[in-house]
Amino acid sequence: MTARSLxxxxxxxxxxxxxxxxxxxxxxxxxxxxxxxxxxTQSLNNQVNSSVVKTEAVxxxxxxxxxxxxxxxxxxxxxxxxxxxxxxxxxxxxxxAYALAMRDWRAQVEMCRKGYKSACDLPPPDPMKYM
Length: 131
Fold this sequence. Notes:
Elements: H1 3-21, H2 28-113, H3 117-121
């Protein structure tokens, strides 16, 4: 085969599909195929659209639940922070009361060692009275 023959064969092979694609859409076979395929295609499109709508509804509900959970978490953290601050303040007052009671008890022990009998007879200081 010559190069010219090969070129002709390749040209003819590429032209055949192009000719098939340019068929008339009013051709009875084409119309019959459309009559069969259009309802099926529309049904499939409707199923996809319905699925998309359902998915969007599920996503919206999940997003709303996420926002509610996040708000509840933030509220719980604020309440916890208030409790921590309150506990910290109470703890600080208790430490101060205990320190003052210990200071007075040491003074009482020192007075007892120096011979003041009344200081020896006193009960130890109660930290609750320093709060």
